[in-house]
Protein backbone atom coordinates (compact mmCIF):
# COMPACT_ATOMS: atom_id res chain seq x y z
CA UNK A 1 0.00 0.00 0.00
CA UNK A 2 1.41 3.37 -1.06
CA UNK A 3 1.30 6.06 1.60
CA UNK A 4 -0.45 9.26 0.57
CA UNK A 5 2.11 12.03 -0.01
CA UNK A 6 -0.33 14.85 0.67
CA UNK A 7 -2.86 16.83 -1.32
CA UNK A 8 -2.37 16.90 -5.05
CA UNK A 9 -2.28 20.31 -6.64
CA UNK A 10 -5.85 19.74 -7.91
CA UNK A 11 -7.10 18.81 -4.47
CA UNK A 12 -5.24 21.72 -2.90
CA UNK A 13 -6.76 24.06 -5.48
CA UNK A 14 -10.22 22.79 -4.58
CA UNK A 15 -9.89 23.27 -0.83
CA UNK A 16 -8.20 26.68 -1.07
CA UNK A 17 -10.37 27.98 -3.95
CA UNK A 18 -7.20 28.91 -5.82
CA UNK A 19 -6.64 27.88 -9.40
CA UNK A 20 -3.97 25.37 -10.34
CA UNK A 21 -2.38 28.07 -12.49
CA UNK A 22 -2.19 30.42 -9.49
CA UNK A 23 -0.62 27.72 -7.30
CA UNK A 24 1.98 27.01 -9.97
CA UNK A 25 2.77 30.73 -10.14
CA UNK A 26 3.12 30.89 -6.34
CA UNK A 27 5.49 27.90 -6.54
CA UNK A 28 7.60 29.44 -9.31
CA UNK A 29 7.90 32.72 -7.41
CA UNK A 30 8.84 30.95 -4.20
CA UNK A 31 5.83 32.21 -2.30
CA UNK A 32 4.28 28.80 -1.66
CA UNK A 33 6.48 25.80 -2.35
CA UNK A 34 4.81 22.38 -2.30
CA UNK A 35 5.75 20.14 0.60
CA UNK A 36 7.08 17.58 -1.87
CA UNK A 37 7.54 17.23 -5.59
CA UNK A 38 7.67 13.70 -7.01
CA UNK A 39 11.05 13.40 -8.76
CA UNK A 40 9.66 11.01 -11.37
CA UNK A 41 6.31 12.61 -12.22
CA UNK A 42 6.96 16.22 -11.09
CA UNK A 43 3.59 16.10 -9.35
CA UNK A 44 3.26 18.66 -6.58
CA UNK A 45 1.93 17.67 -3.17
CA UNK A 46 0.81 20.01 -0.40
CA UNK A 47 0.20 19.48 3.30
CA UNK A 48 -3.02 20.48 5.10
CA UNK A 49 -1.18 23.05 7.22
CA UNK A 50 -0.30 24.94 4.00
CA UNK A 51 -3.97 25.73 3.33
CA UNK A 52 -4.07 28.75 5.64
CA UNK A 53 -0.80 30.11 4.19
CA UNK A 54 -2.19 29.83 0.66
CA UNK A 55 -5.32 31.69 1.64
CA UNK A 56 -3.32 34.45 3.38
CA UNK A 57 -1.21 34.91 0.24
CA UNK A 58 -4.35 35.07 -1.89
CA UNK A 59 -5.94 37.72 0.33
CA UNK A 60 -2.78 39.81 0.34
CA UNK A 61 -2.52 39.64 -3.44
CA UNK A 62 -6.20 40.65 -3.71
CA UNK A 63 -5.15 43.78 -1.81
CA UNK A 64 -2.34 44.36 -4.37
CA UNK A 65 0.38 43.76 -1.81
CA UNK A 66 3.64 43.50 -3.82
CA UNK A 67 5.14 40.02 -4.04
CA UNK A 68 8.24 41.06 -2.10
CA UNK A 69 6.08 42.28 0.80
CA UNK A 70 3.93 39.14 0.69
CA UNK A 71 7.09 37.09 1.01
CA UNK A 72 8.24 39.18 3.98
CA UNK A 73 4.86 38.85 5.67
CA UNK A 74 4.63 35.07 5.41
CA UNK A 75 8.29 34.35 6.23
CA UNK A 76 8.76 36.62 9.25
CA UNK A 77 8.45 34.95 12.60
CA UNK A 78 7.81 38.23 14.39
CA UNK A 79 4.04 38.84 14.69
CA UNK A 80 4.60 42.55 15.39
CA UNK A 81 6.67 42.98 12.23
CA UNK A 82 4.05 41.05 10.27
CA UNK A 83 1.28 43.28 11.60
CA UNK A 84 3.27 46.45 10.78
CA UNK A 85 3.93 45.27 7.21
CA UNK A 86 0.23 44.65 6.66
CA UNK A 87 -0.78 47.89 8.38
CA UNK A 88 1.63 49.88 6.20
CA UNK A 89 0.06 48.51 3.04
CA UNK A 90 -3.44 49.13 4.36
CA UNK A 91 -2.51 52.76 5.00
CA UNK A 92 -1.36 53.07 1.39
CA UNK A 93 -4.61 51.49 0.21
CA UNK A 94 -6.66 53.90 2.30
CA UNK A 95 -4.76 56.86 0.84
CA UNK A 96 -5.37 55.55 -2.67
CA UNK A 97 -9.04 55.05 -1.83
CA UNK A 98 -9.25 58.64 -0.62
CA UNK A 99 -7.74 59.86 -3.90
CA UNK A 100 -10.16 57.73 -5.88
CA UNK A 101 -13.15 58.93 -3.85
CA UNK A 102 -12.10 62.56 -4.33
CA UNK A 103 -11.78 62.06 -8.09
CA UNK A 104 -15.23 60.44 -8.27
CA UNK A 105 -16.84 63.27 -6.28
CA UNK A 106 -15.18 65.88 -8.51
CA UNK A 107 -16.31 64.14 -11.69
CA UNK A 108 -19.88 63.92 -10.44
CA UNK A 109 -19.87 67.63 -9.69
CA UNK A 110 -18.40 68.46 -13.09
CA UNK A 111 -20.98 66.34 -14.88
CA UNK A 112 -23.97 67.96 -13.16
CA UNK A 113 -25.53 70.27 -15.75
CA UNK A 114 -27.27 72.42 -13.14
CA UNK A 115 -24.24 72.98 -10.91
CA UNK A 116 -22.72 75.90 -12.81
CA UNK A 117 -24.34 78.66 -10.73
CA UNK A 118 -21.89 80.15 -8.26
CA UNK A 119 -22.50 82.91 -5.73
CA UNK A 120 -19.51 85.26 -5.88
CA UNK A 121 -18.95 88.44 -3.89
CA UNK A 122 -16.40 91.12 -4.72
CA UNK A 123 -15.06 92.11 -1.32
CA UNK A 124 -12.58 94.76 -0.21
CA UNK A 125 -10.71 93.33 2.75
CA UNK A 126 -8.92 95.88 4.99
CA UNK A 127 -5.37 95.41 6.24
CA UNK A 128 -5.17 93.09 9.22
CA UNK A 129 -2.65 91.70 11.66
CA UNK A 130 -2.51 87.94 12.24
CA UNK A 131 -0.23 85.30 13.69
CA UNK A 132 1.02 83.04 10.91
CA UNK A 133 3.30 80.14 10.06
CA UNK A 134 4.84 80.02 6.58
CA UNK A 135 7.03 77.56 4.69
CA UNK A 136 7.84 76.40 1.18
CA UNK A 137 6.01 73.10 0.84
CA UNK A 138 5.60 70.40 -1.80
CA UNK A 139 2.00 69.79 -2.83
CA UNK A 140 2.13 66.15 -1.72
CA UNK A 141 3.18 67.26 1.78
CA UNK A 142 0.69 70.12 2.04
CA UNK A 143 -2.01 68.39 4.10
CA UNK A 144 0.42 67.05 6.69
CA UNK A 145 2.18 70.43 6.91
CA UNK A 146 -1.16 72.23 7.28
CA UNK A 147 -2.23 69.97 10.15
CA UNK A 148 0.98 70.42 12.14
CA UNK A 149 1.03 74.19 11.58
CA UNK A 150 -2.59 74.57 12.66
CA UNK A 151 -1.95 72.40 15.71
CA UNK A 152 0.84 74.77 16.71
CA UNK A 153 -1.36 77.85 16.29
CA UNK A 154 -4.25 76.25 18.17
CA UNK A 155 -2.00 75.27 21.05
CA UNK A 156 -0.59 78.80 21.33
CA UNK A 157 -3.95 80.57 21.14
CA UNK A 158 -6.89 78.88 22.92
CA UNK A 159 -10.45 79.78 21.86
CA UNK A 160 -10.79 82.75 24.21
CA UNK A 161 -7.83 84.48 22.51
CA UNK A 162 -9.03 84.02 18.93
CA UNK A 163 -10.60 86.86 16.97
CA UNK A 164 -12.02 85.01 13.98
CA UNK A 165 -11.77 81.82 11.91
CA UNK A 166 -8.37 80.58 10.75
CA UNK A 167 -7.22 80.88 7.19
CA UNK A 168 -4.52 80.20 4.68
CA UNK A 169 -2.75 81.92 1.82
CA UNK A 170 -1.25 79.73 -0.87
CA UNK A 171 1.17 80.83 -3.58
CA UNK A 172 0.06 80.08 -7.13
CA UNK A 173 3.31 78.13 -7.63
CA UNK A 174 2.06 75.52 -5.18
CA UNK A 175 -0.51 74.52 -7.81
CA UNK A 176 1.37 75.34 -11.02
CA UNK A 177 4.79 73.94 -10.07
CA UNK A 178 3.92 71.52 -7.28
CA UNK A 179 5.91 73.48 -4.69
CA UNK A 180 5.26 76.92 -3.22
CA UNK A 181 4.81 79.02 -0.12
CA UNK A 182 2.00 78.04 2.24
CA UNK A 183 0.88 80.33 5.04
CA UNK A 184 -1.69 79.42 7.67
CA UNK A 185 -2.85 82.01 10.17
CA UNK A 186 -5.20 82.94 12.96
CA UNK A 187 -6.57 86.40 13.80
CA UNK A 188 -6.05 86.78 17.55
CA UNK A 189 -6.72 89.45 20.18
CA UNK A 190 -3.09 89.90 21.26
CA UNK A 191 -0.74 88.81 18.44
CA UNK A 192 2.69 87.54 19.44
CA UNK A 193 5.23 85.26 17.81
CA UNK A 194 7.28 82.33 19.03
CA UNK A 195 8.84 79.27 17.44
CA UNK A 196 7.69 79.14 13.83
CA UNK A 197 4.94 81.67 14.50
CA UNK A 198 5.31 85.24 13.31
CA UNK A 199 3.15 88.34 13.56
CA UNK A 200 2.24 89.26 9.98
CA UNK A 201 0.54 92.34 8.54
CA UNK A 202 -1.66 91.46 5.56
CA UNK A 203 -2.21 94.44 3.25
CA UNK A 204 -5.65 95.50 2.13
CA UNK A 205 -6.83 93.60 -0.94
CA UNK A 206 -9.80 93.07 -3.24
CA UNK A 207 -11.08 89.51 -3.40
CA UNK A 208 -13.52 87.56 -5.51
CA UNK A 209 -15.04 85.35 -2.81
CA UNK A 210 -17.19 82.25 -2.90
CA UNK A 211 -17.95 79.55 -0.33
CA UNK A 212 -17.31 75.87 -0.88
CA UNK A 213 -19.84 73.83 1.09
CA UNK A 214 -19.15 70.33 2.35
CA UNK A 215 -16.10 68.05 2.26
CA UNK A 216 -12.95 69.08 0.46
CA UNK A 217 -12.97 66.18 -2.02
CA UNK A 218 -14.32 68.39 -4.80
CA UNK A 219 -12.99 71.78 -3.72
CA UNK A 220 -11.01 71.86 -6.96
CA UNK A 221 -14.32 72.11 -8.83
CA UNK A 222 -15.24 75.23 -6.84
CA UNK A 223 -11.80 76.67 -7.57
CA UNK A 224 -12.36 76.07 -11.26
CA UNK A 225 -15.77 77.71 -11.27
CA UNK A 226 -14.48 80.70 -9.37
CA UNK A 227 -11.69 81.03 -11.91
CA UNK A 228 -14.23 80.90 -14.73
CA UNK A 229 -16.25 83.65 -13.02
CA UNK A 230 -13.16 85.85 -12.59
CA UNK A 231 -12.17 85.52 -16.25
CA UNK A 232 -15.70 86.06 -17.54
CA UNK A 233 -15.96 89.29 -15.51
CA UNK A 234 -12.76 90.68 -17.03
CA UNK A 235 -10.78 90.43 -13.80
CA UNK A 236 -7.16 89.41 -13.36
CA UNK A 237 -5.73 87.32 -10.55
CA UNK A 238 -3.31 89.27 -8.37
CA UNK A 239 -1.43 87.27 -5.76
CA UNK A 240 -1.87 84.11 -3.68
CA UNK A 241 -5.26 82.54 -3.14
CA UNK A 242 -6.91 83.08 0.25
CA UNK A 243 -8.91 80.48 2.16
CA UNK A 244 -10.91 81.07 5.32
CA UNK A 245 -12.12 78.06 7.27
CA UNK A 246 -15.53 79.14 8.50
CA UNK A 247 -16.18 75.57 9.64
CA UNK A 248 -14.00 72.53 9.13
CA UNK A 249 -12.68 69.29 10.59
CA UNK A 250 -11.47 71.14 13.71
CA UNK A 251 -15.02 72.34 14.37
CA UNK A 252 -17.21 69.37 13.46
CA UNK A 253 -16.84 65.79 12.30
CA UNK A 254 -19.85 66.22 10.04
CA UNK A 255 -18.26 67.06 6.68
CA UNK A 256 -21.61 68.25 5.34
CA UNK A 257 -21.32 71.27 7.66
CA UNK A 258 -17.86 72.32 6.53
CA UNK A 259 -17.64 75.74 4.90
CA UNK A 260 -14.49 76.99 3.18
CA UNK A 261 -14.36 80.53 1.87
CA UNK A 262 -12.16 80.89 -1.22
CA UNK A 263 -10.93 84.33 -2.17
CA UNK A 264 -8.86 85.24 -5.20
CA UNK A 265 -7.12 88.63 -5.16
CA UNK A 266 -8.33 90.39 -8.29
CA UNK A 267 -7.99 93.59 -10.28
CA UNK A 268 -9.99 94.86 -13.23
CA UNK A 269 -8.36 94.38 -16.58
CA UNK A 270 -8.06 97.43 -18.83
CA UNK A 271 -9.08 96.94 -22.47
CA UNK A 272 -6.21 96.71 -24.97
UniProtKB/TrEMBL annotation:
Keywords, comma-separated and alphabetical: DNA-binding
InterPro entries linked: AraC_E-bd, DNA-bd_dom_put_sf, GyrI-like, MerR-type_HTH_dom, MerR_fam, Reg_factor_effector_dom_sf
Gene3D superfamilies: 1.10.1660.10, Regulatory factor, effector binding domain
Domain of life: Bacteria
Keyword DNA damage: no
Domain HTH merR-type: 6-76
A Pfam family assignment: MerR_1
Transport is among the record's keywords: no
Protein name: MerR family transcriptional regulator
Amino acid sequence: MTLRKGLTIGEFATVTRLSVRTLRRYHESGLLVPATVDPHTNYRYYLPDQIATAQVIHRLRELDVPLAEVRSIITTGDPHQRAELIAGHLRRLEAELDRTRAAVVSLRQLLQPDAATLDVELRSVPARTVVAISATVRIEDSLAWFDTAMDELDAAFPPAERAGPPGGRYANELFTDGVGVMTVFRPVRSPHGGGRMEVVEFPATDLAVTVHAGPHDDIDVTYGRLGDWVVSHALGIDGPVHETYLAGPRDTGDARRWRTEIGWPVFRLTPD
